[in-house]
Amino acid sequence: MKTEQAHGVLLRKLSAVIRLSNAEIDCIEAMQRREKCIAAGSEFVHDGEAYEQTYIVKDGWAIRFKTLSDGRRQVLNFVLPGDFVGLFSALFDVADHSVAALTDLVVHPMEPTVLVGMFGSFPRLGAAVAWSAGRDEAILAEQVVRIGRRSAYERTGHLIVELLHRLWLVGEADQRSFELPLTQEVLADTLGLSIVHVNRTLRRLRENGLLRVAGDRVIIGDLDRLVRMTEFSPHYLEAQPLPRATTTALSAV
Amino acid sequence: MKTEQAHGVLLRKLSAVIRLSNAEIDCIEAMQRREKCIAAGSEFVHDGEAYEQTYIVKDGWAIRFKTLSDGRRQVLNFVLPGDFVGLFSALFDVADHSVAALTDLVVHPMEPTVLVGMFGSFPRLGAAVAWSAGRDEAILAEQVVRIGRRSAYERTGHLIVELLHRLWLVGEADQRSFELPLTQEVLADTLGLSIVHVNRTLRRLRENGLLRVAGDRVIIGDLDRLVRMTEFSPHYLEAQPLPRATTTALSAV
DNA sequence: CGGATCTTTGACTACGTTCAATTATTGTGG
DNA sequence: CCACAATAATTGAACGTAGTCAAAGATCCG
To answer: Measured from the CB, is A118 under 7 Å from any atom of strand D?
Structure first.
């Protein structure tokens, strides 16, 4: 785990979308006043049960996932520092998936209604948070393509590059490596593969000099080749300022 | 295609989430004043290009999809009457996927900024539209599980039951059948399978009496067994009224 | 040090793909 | 209205990617 910047990664993320006023910064910081630790391995949002809280993740990794009755599990997405958990919790009576901590987690819990209030009081901030929700959906869409239409080899490489990019944005990856607190089982459940096949695929990626997993660290061997092989394009991950027309419409509110 | 009710399917969908005031109904109807036809087969949102407009679909089917450079295609989700296309278009400079009409389409186009205004003027309506976005994400999540962790047989059955439920909600399916304007190629690109295997899987579903595809119509043979076999649970599709706390928070805005 | 968890490898199986050819269906112009 | 082309569905055969089963090493941690 790393030290965060003064204002936390969420603020950094959102400030790439809108220029934040002091009031808006205060609002986000108010949401991050409470702090709670969640132990690695514990499930803190349960599929089919009511949401308790909405969380902003300060530090650590979690997974959003679903489980079938016979135990088959599918990871939907990883939750990294600066991400929301249960962003839609004010709108749904129960969760449609579970969330579990992969590492010890530090989160900022808040009442779901706090977000409702924020949309009313700080519409520009609301837009930035909505942008974050849209980005989550874009990541999920990429996950569908990855699983549906890429080979195991491409799939695995693509996920690693996606994580590299996401971690760059929150300052948790160096240029060519990052900490990956995942067992091959979690990786398998993310990629829709068996554990054994993930293992063989990682070996092949290593033998080809593309990347190497050593302990819980990934070292990229040849990023260019990896990006080409996986046809990775980072656009869906990158924060852009809101279109001008939207900014205009927002200030008219 | 079918005749819609007086106010259209979107209003029906949203009114299951909040009780709509007259002003709110007027607002939605204002967004549906313009009408445009889009020919079957044409792609009207292009991956990587700027969004032109946001659309509410009045009638017809479309697909949201992505294509890899070698032609492999993955359908993310179907767009049915009452669904939005480009709901996030005010927040992103370019689209992260393409959208194409499967049938002739009737849509209501609007400027993306109209939605921004709506969130400001009608927060409750904004919440209902946000609910719709959350539901789209839930459908996408289910798509990930379907492709990642279900067999071809389960996958295909599960998708058909999902479509049955979605079409029920917009009044486009009878109790045990509906029109399915898809080639087996589109089905294959949705399920992450080859055309040939989709064909064989449909045959198996037919031989087992679960469902039958005749022309462009699906007839469910044994819904109970299909639901059990696919472990289908409709909760992620159903509109529920907003939680009370949210309603309270909304009226305080 | 010793149990538990995780990783790695081999051998075999099977689900799903690819290639190829045949048979509907659909749409269109003569 | 039929002929013909084009598109879509269907089937067979061979192949290959990925899964399953089983067992042996590594690592982690108390």
So the answer is: no
Report the distance separating Cα B230 and Cα B114, nearest Å: 40
Digitized pLDDT (tens) for each residue of chain B, 253 residues in all: 444 455 689 999 999 999 999 999 999 999 999 999 999 999 999 999 999 999 999 999 999 999 999 999 999 999 999 999 999 999 999 999 999 999 999 999 999 999 999 999 999 999 999 999 999 999 999 999 999 999 999 999 999 999 999 999 999 999 999 999 999 999 999 999 999 999 999 999 999 999 999 989 999 999 999 999 999 999 999 999 999 999 999 988 6
Residue A195 CA and nucleotide C8 C1' are separated, in Å, by 11
- The DSSP 8-state label assigned to residue A49 in this structure reads S
Q: Which CATH superfamily is domain A9-251 in?
A: Jelly Rolls (2.60.120.10)
* Cβ contact, residue pair B74, A148, below 8 Å: yes
pTM across the whole model: 0.96
Please choose, from the candidates B116, B103, B128, the residue with its C-alpha nearest in 3D space to the C-alpha of residue B10: B128
Mutate to test the interface with B, among A96, A131, A189 (most CBs of B within 10 A): A96
CA B203 – CA B213 distance, rounded (Å): 9
Q: Residue ranges per domain, chain B?
A: 9-251
